[in-house]
Backbone:
DNA sequence: CCTTTTATTGTCCCGCCGGTCAATTCTTGA
DNA sequence: TCAAGAATTGACCGGCGGGACAATAAAAGG
């Protein structure tokens, strides 16, 4: 087809040059390999094989191994972000915003052991890779800010920060549990856990709405 | 010195054959390397160098790399365990037992980024190493049991389990935070976070001890 | 003192892995 | 149709890492 038609199509389908498609395939392949092999066992050949390509092509699209896995982390981060913002868009009250963040972080197709394993491997490299650290930082800042946007309406001003920290830590911890002992915590359990935490902390220094 | 004297001495100083000493040195060296290099960059040569020995000696005391790092994890696990049981021995009330577990998990010389980095790297390999998984499992079971021994006196029977899960997850999550962004959470902050969590969850469905 | 373990080293090998490169095929656009 | 550029491959290289091993030094033990 002629150029302008293709261009129009590209704009409609959101900037998918062929190279962009390949890059996405490779990022995802990288992440998939990470799920099974961990950072120590993740090799360029395996990534290439998983994407049905040759090792050469991987280094054609990414300068080196580091860059590849940085992009893999960005991808995963984006997926998580989208899950939350989708829910966040439909939230009207502060409480709904809180629930959006919580539910989003434990979505069915996200809260899974393999995904957690890969994420864990990436986190383990954060101290040695500035880029990974930045991605991590952004992710955490976003989560915190999303939580605060809900908490400001519900918690005492001085406590919102602390509760937000607790919630993020609790969520991370539940993910970690899932990764370390798959099956030891269900999606519903995790969600209830975090929501109970929020409820308990909100009620804590409140004028006793208990037993009413 | 003659054999029986040496044996007596050994018993007094707790079974330190020369080989045991070397093995301990090497486990610790392995852990130290893990702190700096992560699982991907941790090599036998580096461990040997850090212990001031040759690579050969490492494989003389440990069948292979895997076994070495399994023992490194056991070592770290033991250190954490000892920190908690020491405090646990002095605890008289259920609440004191809870605090013992919490404080023990955030001890000054334990709650440090490098240690957390190493631990994180080991956790990331858990899904691919049965032995590591078992150590992890034991550690978690112990922590849970310690918590329950305190909670049974304080929480509703049906809730103790869930609170224990929450506490372990929260503790893990706070450690993770420390590893991902050193300085983003202080020891005191972490302790307060967990204790507030316990307090809030215990007060939650209680006959309103609030505002009294 | 001599023998038998044990500790320790350095060397060697093999396989793998990241990365480069030239060669080849495929697309694209005029 | 053709030229320019992109995509893709496979071969190759240097290096390193895990592990085996033989040789040597040191202890232990009778």
Residues:
């Amino acid at each position: 087809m002629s150029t302008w038609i293709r261009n129009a199509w590209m704009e409609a389908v959101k900037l998918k040059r062929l190279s962009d498609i390949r890059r996405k395939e490779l990022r995802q392949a990288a992440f998939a390999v990470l799920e099974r092999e961990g950072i120590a066992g993740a090799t360029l050949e395996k990534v290439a094989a998983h994407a049905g390509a040759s090792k050469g092509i991987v280094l054609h699209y990414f300068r080196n191994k580091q860059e590849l896995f940085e992009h893999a982390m960005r991808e995963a981060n984006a997926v998580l972000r989208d899950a939350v913002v989708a829910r966040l868009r439909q939230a009207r009250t502060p409480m709904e915003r809180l629930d959006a963040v919580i539910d989003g972080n434990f979505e069915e197709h996200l809260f899974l052991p393999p995904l957690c394993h890969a994420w864990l491997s990436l986190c383990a490299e954060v101290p040695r890779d500035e880029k990974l650290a930045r991605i991590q930082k952004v992710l955490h800042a976003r989560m915190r800010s999303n939580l605060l946007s809900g908490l400001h309406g519900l918690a005492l001003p001085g406590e919102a920060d602390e509760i937000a920290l607790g919630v993020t830590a609790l969520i991370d911890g539940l993910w970690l549990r899932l990764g370390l002992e798959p099956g030891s915590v269900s999606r519903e359990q995790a969600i209830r856990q975090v929501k109970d935490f929020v409820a308990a902390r909100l009620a804590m220094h409140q004028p006793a709405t208990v037993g009413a």
